[in-house]
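#onboarding

Welcome to the new folks! Below is a worked example of what a typical request in this channel looks like: someone posts a single protein sequence, and someone else replies with the predicted structure as tokens. Don't worry about understanding the tokens yet, we'll cover that in week two.

Example request:
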Amino acid sequence: MTDQKTRLSTADASYVAFVEEAWRRHIRLALLLAGDRWRAEELLQDSLVRMYERWRRLSRSDDLHAYLRRALVNNHTSFWRRRRRESLVAEVPDRAAPSTEPDHDAVALRRALRALPPRQRAVVVLRHYEDLPEREVARVLGCTVGTVKSQHSKALGKLRHLLQQPSYTGIR
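Example response:
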């Protein structure tokens, strides 16, 4: 990241250490929220840059990972609102073929997760991937526990329905 001759300040060194730990810890959360590897990396990077801008104040915080989770969810929601789920293009972009055989269940689940509205997706990811209790999910999303429960219930119902469809499971 930096060459040996450049000395980092104590604050910058603590930020670098946090980023190295946070990247490994939060990239999958970003991937599940965004549904795309490249967008997930961009989402996580943008959130970390925003944290750096406030690092001197944030570094005294008790739970930097909770702050980063909230930033990821908020940034994803903002991006989604700007894009409105669809972007029209003249031609479909080329995609490289995967080099190994994918896990069909994981692919079907990711596809079904992408079909959920952003708030429902965030609730499912925070509850089941991050293993946060409902109260913490409500705090991260800035809503009530009742909203988390209802969004979670609706999301699981929709996931069950989608995953029974042959188009998601690959069964013909």
